[in-house]
From TrEMBL:
<feature type="transmembrane region" description="Helical">
    <location>
        <begin position="556"/>
        <end position="580"/>
    </location>
</feature>
<protein>
    <submittedName>
        <fullName>MMPL family transporter</fullName>
    </submittedName>
</protein>
<feature type="compositionally biased region" description="Polar residues">
    <location>
        <begin position="8"/>
        <end position="18"/>
    </location>
</feature>
<feature type="transmembrane region" description="Helical">
    <location>
        <begin position="41"/>
        <end position="60"/>
    </location>
</feature>
<dbReference type="GO" id="GO:0005886">
    <property type="term" value="C:plasma membrane"/>
</dbReference>
<feature type="transmembrane region" description="Helical">
    <location>
        <begin position="648"/>
        <end position="667"/>
    </location>
</feature>
<feature type="transmembrane region" description="Helical">
    <location>
        <begin position="301"/>
        <end position="325"/>
    </location>
</feature>
<feature type="region of interest" description="Disordered">
    <location>
        <begin position="1"/>
        <end position="22"/>
    </location>
</feature>
<keyword id="KW-1133">Transmembrane helix</keyword>
<dbReference type="Pfam" id="PF03176">
    <property type="entry name" value="MMPL"/>
</dbReference>
<feature type="transmembrane region" description="Helical">
    <location>
        <begin position="679"/>
        <end position="698"/>
    </location>
</feature>
<keyword id="KW-0812">Transmembrane</keyword>
<keyword id="KW-0472">Membrane</keyword>
<feature type="domain" description="Membrane transport protein MMPL">
    <location>
        <begin position="511"/>
        <end position="698"/>
    </location>
</feature>
<dbReference type="InterPro" id="IPR050545">
    <property type="entry name" value="Mycobact_MmpL"/>
</dbReference>
<feature type="transmembrane region" description="Helical">
    <location>
        <begin position="331"/>
        <end position="355"/>
    </location>
</feature>
<feature type="transmembrane region" description="Helical">
    <location>
        <begin position="203"/>
        <end position="222"/>
    </location>
</feature>
Length: 736
């Protein structure tokens, strides 16, 4: 027999019915009553905390160098730390190319560069040959590395933390030289400076797109023009609290700075939509808006808490990565969920209730009144969708493990950016190159000579510089040039500088890392140190190769445990995670089939983000389905659950999809574009899975769910198994 859910009239008896639904939630209701009664105090506390956090935001340091997030156990990380300790500086991290200038102007520019506070050292043609002699009579191989007939190349070591203003200063100095025509500057330090410089611009674009998207979508799916204002204000407070409290962490990565806020905004919308939906439903049951808000707060808490918990642990699973960028992002995102949870469950009801009269005056009719046709369509298309998902699952899982990645900051530069175009100019003139440094024990001259000879013999080698090559191993160090000695001999180490004609990120570069390490290992065992961009990227690749599996397992286990406790069921977590994981595999397989190279951070983030967001949608559907399944047959419960949950799920997911698509088209960083596209595509695939496949999994596995769950009390009619639920539909009240 079908049980209809009749609307309660707006009478005092209705209020009593609502009050009768409280049950075990009386203590929580009392707490929420206290919050609402003291709403001015609660609001004041949030205002003070927000003001303090806002003042702290500019003091949070941003780090754009991915190498800084290598785990301490990584060899390149240990080697870099030791090299900085011994020599006090890094290796070449910038190249400056100036055309149209004379030898005199080039010498003048060299002196000017060395006089800058942020320049550690400069190397140019004048350090390699005698500039007083005609260049035509000297070694042309050496000269071609530094002078191409049009201009001079300067290799510079910039201090850590060099910003765009300092790079611009170098550019201005070069342009001011007599006869200067083209000035091009590239290098890892310049890449990092450029990435940091674009953060504020990209952040402004990201948040503008997100705010507009939220406003429009919430406006279309609620009943007042002020609802999106209240929601944005509440989540805006949560975002400021999260960003400000990053000061306690000292430094965060540029990637975290860019993506954390928009992800917090998009994911948190679920919680505010649940609260707003429940408030609207309880207002239909009672004229007392205070009681309606208290009941909405009590009713929403379990759903919001469970959704926040699974998202929290999904984000926190990133901290399981060996690569420390995972912990950096995971902690920031998880902290953001806590801030959003507190703001939406405590602050938003106070604002919404305080503005109740203004909200009522700005009310409008809902733009989307019914999703019945959509629910019927999803029901009819469930089996074809399930078959498609089943066919794609395994091939997509395999393909997702074969995607090509980039690791360095250079890959995050737009093709139209200044640093990218400058790099193309320099590479055209002198070829792609990178400089590494090798530290070996000092004084073992015969062994060092053999090592140098083997390095010179490598087909990619452009130059090998060591004390023995410039002074000769027989020359006592006391008689050598002091600047040469200090740069090449220090702290019991001899340093060799290897310059190779190879790009930072390529199979050839990674093969060269293995080859050079093998050569050094042969001569010095574990006593050598090797530092360079490609060396760091090689270790990042090695570390992150297992991180993807680690993040997947950590997020699945953590979220599965929360779902197990939440639903008191073994089968429900399995069903939810199975449906969502297939959608993740499909999303991650797309770059492989399209031949796209993805930044590894973007790819790792999507595991936690898509899983966390999709589980929110799945929980909303599952809560509704279980409530209706207690009152009606499974097929009817499935169709009605899709109909009732379509609005909140579509509202939230459309915000995520449209905002991330906007980010994809608006920002300049290819990595952030990739994050945007992955999240947008992942949200779309997840919603399709939840509306088409998840209902079929529940109805098809109805018996499995009943026998592996604690006291579900499913409806028992003709052809139905399980226990009879005698509770009337009106008393259940679980529609949110």
């Amino acid at each position: 027999m079908r049980v209809e859910n009749n609307r309660c009239s707006k009478t005092n008896s209705s209020t009593e019915t609502v009050s009768g639904e409280r049950g075990a939630g009386l203590s929580m209701e009392g707490f929420f009553r206290g919050v609402l009664r003291h709403r001015k105090l609660v609001t004041a506390i949030f205002v003070v905390l927000t003001a303090i956090s806002l003042a702290c935001v500019p003091m949070v340091k941003i780090d754009a160098n991915m190498s800084d997030y290598l785990p301490p156990s990584a060899k390149s990380s240990q080697d870099l730390t030791e090299m900085k300790r011994v020599y006090g500086n890094d290796i070449t991290n910038a190249r400056v190319y100036v055309t149209g200038i004379s030898k005199t102007e080039a010498q003048k520019f060299d002196d000017s560069l060395k006089g800058l506070d942020d320049v550690v050292s400069v190397t140019w043609l004048g350090d390699e040959v005698n500039m007083d002699e005609p260049l035509e009579v000297q070694d042309q191989g050496t000269i071609s590395d530094w002078y191409d007939g049009k201009g001079y190349l300067f290799q510079v070591v910039l201090a850590s933390g060099t910003d765009q203003a300092q790079v611009d200063q170098i550019r201005s100095m070069a342009k001011s030289l007599s006869g200067a025509k083209t000035v091009a500057i590239d290098g890892s330090a310049v890449d990092d400076a450029a990435n940091l410089a674009t953060i504020n611009t990209d952040m402004a674009k990201i948040m503008t797109i997100a705010v507009i998207t939220v406003f429009v979508m919430v406006l279309l799916n609620t009943t007042s023009y002020l609802h999106p204002v209240v929601m944005l204000l509440t989540i805006g407070v949560a975002i400021i609290l999260n960003m400000g409290t990053n000061i306690f962490r000292g430094t965060i990565s540029s990637i975290t700075q860019l993506v954390a806020s928009v992800l917090q905004l998009a994911v948190s919308m679920d919680y505010s939509i649940v609260l707003l939906t429940n408030f609207g439903r309880f207002r239909e049951k009672t004229d007392d808006q205070f009681e309606a808000m208290v009941m909405a707060m009590s009713k929403s808490l379990p759903v919001i808490l469970s959704s926040a918990a699974v998202t929290f642990f999904g984000f926190l699973s990133l901290a399981a990565m060996q690569f420390l960028i995972g912990a950096d992002m995971g902690i920031a995102l998880a902290k953001g969920i806590v801030c959003s949870f507190l703001s939406i469950t405590l602050l938003m009801p106070c604002i919404l209730y305080g503005m109740r009269n203004a909200v009522a005056k700005t009310s409008h009719k809902p733009f989307f009144k019914s999703f019945h046709k959509m629910a019927s369509f999803c029901h009819k298309g469930a089996i074809p969708a399930f078959v498609i998902a089943l066919v794609l699952a395994v091939p997509c899982l395999i393909a997702s493990g074969r995607v090509s990645f980039t690791y360095g900051s250079a890959a995050n530069e737009s093709p139209t950016s200044q640093v990218k175009m400058d790099g193309d100019i320099i590479n055209k003139a002198f070829g792609e190159s990178q400089t590494w440094a090798i530290m070996i024990p000092e004084g073992e001259w015969s062994e060092e000579t053999e090592l140098v000879d083997e390095l010179k013999a490598l087909p990619t080698t452009k130059q090998v510089l060591s004390y023995s090559t410039i002074a000769g191993s027989a020359l006592p160090t006391q008689l050598g040039d002091k600047s040469d000695v200090s740069q090449l001999l220090s702290g019991g180490y001899s340093r060799i500088v290897l310059t190779s004609s190879i790009p930072d990120e390529s199979k050839g570069a990674f093969d060269l890392v293995e080859k050079v390490r093998s050569i050094c290992q042969k001569h010095y065992g574990d006593k050598y140190r090797l530092v360079g961009n490609a060396v760091s990227y090689y270790d990042i690749r090695s570390v992150t190769s297992s991180d993807s599996t680690t993040v997947k397992l950590a997020s699945i286990l953590a979220i599965g445990a929360v779902l197990l406790v939440m639903f008191k069921s073994i089968s429900i977590p399995i069903i939810l995670l199975m449906a969502i994981e297939v959608s993740i595999w499909i999303n991650e397989a797309v770059p492989y089939f399209t031949g796209e190279t993805i930044n590894f951070v973007a790819f790792l983030v999507i595991d936690a983000v898509q899983l966390g967001a999709a589980v929110d949608y799945a929980i909303i559907f599952t809560e509704e389905y279980l409530a209706r399944r207690r009152r009606m047959p499974k097929a009817e419960a499935s169709i009605q659950s899709v109909e009732k949950t379509a609005q909140p799920i579509i509202t939230s997911s459309s915000i995520l999809i449209l905002a991330c698509l906007g980010i994809y088209f608006a920002v300049s960083s290819p990595m952030i574009q990739q994050v945007g596209m992955l999240i947008a595509r992942g949200a779309l695939i997840s919603v399709i899975e939840i509306f088409f496949v998840l209902p079929l999994l529940f109805t098809g596995g109805d018996g499995f769910v009943r026998h592996t769950s604690y006291k579900l009390g499913f409806y028992q009619g003709k052809g139905e198994g399980g226990n009879v639920s005698e509770a009337p539909a009106e008393a259940n009240g679980n529609e949110a």
